[in-house]
Structure formats: C-alpha cells, structure tokens
Amino acid sequence: MAAGRGLDEASSHANTGGASTALLLGIDLSTQSVTVVFLDAGTNRIVHIDTLNFDRELPQFGTSAGLHVGKNGKVTSPVQMWLVGLDRILRRQERTLMGRVKAVSGSAQQHGSIFWTADGLAALRCMAPADSFSSNLYGGFALEDCPTWADSSTQMECDAIESATGGPGAMAALTGSRAYCRFTGPQIARVARTEPLVWKHTARVSLVSSFLTSLLVGHPAPVDASDASGMNLMNVRTSEWCEELLEATAPGLAARLGTIVNPWESLGPISPYCAARFGFVTDCLVIPASGDNSCSVVGTGLACDQTASTLMVSLGTSDTLVGLTRSPRPGPEGHVMVSPRGPDEWFAMLCYKNGALAREAVRDRVAGGCWKKFDDLVASAPPGNDGNLAMTLVMEEIVPVLPIRGSFRVDAQDEPVAALSEAHEARAVVEARFLSMRVHAGNLGLPTAPSRIIATGGGSMSTSLTQVLADVFNAPVLVADSSEAAAVGAALRAGHGLKCKKQARWVELLASPLKDFKVMATPNAQAAAAYPATLLKRFAAFERGLVAKAQKHPQAQQSRE
Ligand code: XUL
Predict the structure, then answer these.
(1) Nearest CA to ligand 1 atom 9
(2) Quick check: helix, strand or coil at residue 240?
(3) Pocket flag, ligand 1, residue 75 (CB < 6 Å)
(4) Looking at domain 11-295, does it have CATH number 3.50.30.10?
(5) For the segment 54-65, what is each residue's pLDDT rounded down to a tens digit?
(6) Considering only CA atoms, which of 228, 111, 225, 234 is closest in space to residue 172?
(7) Domain boundaries of the chain, sorted by first residue
(8) pLDDT tens digit sequence for 488-525
C-alpha cells in the first residue's frame, strides 16, 4: 500500500470491498496539509487515507503551519507549495486505487485566493503529463504568495466596501456576512489597490477550492456556491454575483471571477493530464471542491431538521458553531452560507477568535498552567456560576465585534467586579463561550435546543468543556475527528455529484461513514436548569455593555479578524 493508512485495520478486508469496487476520492487542501481519502462507493466505508504535511514534507517553502506571516496582519501561503504537495500526494497513491475512482471532489481552506495570469490559464489547458503541476504552471501566477483566511490586513478595504453598500447590516443581508478581513472580496480589493501591476496581470481569481478543481479538470473551473459565500461578493439567497459589490471591490473584477455553480453539479471528466499522470480513469467525474466548513457539514452528517437538529461545535484556536437552517437570518455577527447539501438550505456559522488562547490565559492565571486543576476548578463551581459572568479577550473579538482586550466581570447583581474566586474565574471563561453561542445561534436562525452536538477540535477532549456545553444546550455532546471530517465530506460530495449526474437531477446526499461518534457528555437535568432564559438575557446585556464600552474607548485599531 502507498504511504498512509488503511482505516479500521481489523476489518480492512471488509472496507476495501474487493479490488474491483468503485471508489470516491476526497482531496482536502487545508492550511497545514493535503489529505486524500478513498471511500468505497457502495458502502461509503473509508478504504485509505494519506496526509502530506507542508512544514514537514516540503520544508523548502519555509512555512509555519503552512503559512508565511508577514507585516501588518498579512498572512500568505506559496502557490507553488500547494502545486508540489498535490502532485506528490497524488503520485504516491497506488494506481490500483486511483484507477477505481469514479468521482473526485475537494475540500479547501475557505476565503484564500489564487491570482492566475493569462499565460497560466493557457498552460493549464495543455499540461504535459511527464511534468508536475508546478513545472507546467511555472510563472503562471501574478502573485506567488496567496492571501489566506488567516490574513487580517484588510480592515481599510472592509470599511470602504461596507460604506459603499449601505453599512454592515446591508452587507450582511446581501452576502450573509458583514465585511470581514479574511473574506476574499476585501483581499482582492487590497491587492488591486496596493499592487496595481499584479492586478493588471491577473486574468482570473480562483478560490483555493476552485483552484483545486481547475487543476483536476484542466481549465479554469467555476466557483462552488457554498464556498463563494465566504467572499463578500455573492448574493447568499440567489447564489449570483452582486454587481454593485464587484464594482465596489476592484476594477474589472467581474471578468476575472468566472461563474458560480451548485455544489452537486458535475464539472465534467478529469483532464487527460491527470488521467495520464496520476492513473485516474478518463471518465472519472469532477465535482466542485468546496470550503472546509461546508465539507465538514457533510462529513459529520449534519442534517437540516429543526425538530431533531444537530449542531457542530469546534473548540480549537478559534471556536466555531455551525448548524443548518432553511430560514437563515444573516446579521452583524456570524455568517450565513449556502449549504453544500441541497437547494433552499443554508448553514450558519459563528467564528470566535478567543478560543483556546483565552482558556489557556485563565488556566495559567488560576491553575498554574495545569488542565487537570482547571477542569477541577470548573467542576467545583456550580452550573450558572452563582450568577457571576466574565469574558476574557486575549484578542479583539468578532462575535460580537469587540475591539478591546482584557478580562471583564460582573457579579450576580450585574455590578462590575475586579476579580472572582479561582473556581468562578475558571467556570466563567467556559460558560461565557457557550452562553454566547446560544444567544447568537438563535439570532442567526439556528435551533437553540439541538438534539445533539458534535464536537471537534482539541477542546472536545476536555471533560469540563464538553460537560458545560452539554448542560448549557441541554443536549448530549459527541466527538468526531475533524481532520477526517472535511476530507470524508469531500469524498461524499463526489459521490453525491455522481449520483445527481446519473439521475440528471438533484437527489439526497449519501450517508456519512463517520457516524459512530463517542458520547463525551450528557446533560445533567439539574445543571441544565441553571441556564434559564433570564441568564441568557443577562449574558446578552453583559455583551452589549462591553460593545458600548469598546465603542467609547477603543484600545486599538478596529479589526474584525
Ligand atoms: C471560516 C474560516 C476558517 C477556514 C479554515 O470562515 O475562516 O475556518 O476555513 O480553513
């Protein structure tokens, strides 16, 4: 077997389903690595996974976590690293696997952008199979260092685009999100303003997802509607470009974007180049790649059912909450994005900046840096924290927009206090996150009484965090491996597109193989009763008070990333 691992070794026989079974391939081009997942097209079981880590396997690009961190919030990734990484991982897969792939799709970091030259687009159409992507496309990009989702250098562009379109509320109503630094529109605006020659030589801008599918089909691929929701350029209700926004963003942008497609629409067969170089069969179908959050929605098997709903919560460097809805309510906090699963469905997402780093700051202060002691402290204060509320901001927050840093606390009478007991401090930083998620999930049109929560990320391994999450939402918390969810989601989407193509209409998505999640925490009925509507109202008022304080005394330049 090629480098990598066959999952579920004990039953790998059953998994592979015999050497002739058709396979689905998911390719996850994420920030730190590229992963390939092969699924059995009949059973959806995982047959093989392989990952290439950029920092470790491609050290010549000098990245840290796949990124180059520059000045003033600029954070990029080299386009050549993605090309070399993709070529290497596809070349090292066994031809017996590649030759069985009936459909392929991808997952990619959201918001990032690739600036192609006209020569690059021409080279893409006639790549020589003896040479790598990188050699074939050498010199084909107007920018070698591509803006990524981790960039925060475009606040000036965000403000300008928002004011040209009627302010943050109007922007959110139109595109699903107010203008955010990491979103692709503001990123393009900065390139066009600060590097006019680069912009002049740019013939096409791809998202990382459509860049990946362009390489697979051998011509500039359209943008997937779900991933395009992270651009601040698309009408999130109609999935069409907003003319006024394209004009407000950069001159000549409309001609450089291509079209938008539904996530389940086939883009046609794999290119002759990829068939010859990597061993795909010539009729292998390519389905639009999408963003990592969209693909994780599919990989974790989220379904849109308001009565038996599931929310997905990721607890990592940043904390996110994602849920599906048929009645989205875009607003100044969070994002509404087109669902990758089917028509007339969206997913809403909250993305907090103060995740693990804020919890670590409190852990260091009250528990001497020890997670066990921190967990014990959280458990020693009662649910509801005796009415004490606190928020620790190690970075300026974006849910809600809070351009301040520090720790802020009120007691049970809503009086500001300078400090809480160690146990109250520890519990407050955890409760604050989940109370905030409950308040804002409801504002975005998501269910606030889910039937279960699927947790991912490092924090999903913490018993204290997951127990508070279960109690605040009064729902069981299950854990999933997020590194697999996006790649598996991409493979399932490949199968979905194949099925839709065969039946010449949209059909239901396939079931995810990642459904045997481990139950991490179940809600304690008494504890859940400690989070009544009155506490949520108090928390919302506490947040509003901080927003007012931040507006009066901003401590730093306003930034929403
Ligand atoms: C979502 C976001 C991140 C990236 C990471 O809006 O910025 O989750 O998609 O790859």
Answers:
(1) 110
(2) strand
(3) no
(4) no
(5) 999 999 999 998
(6) 234
(7) 11-295
(8) 999 999 999 999 999 999 999 877 777 668 899 999 99
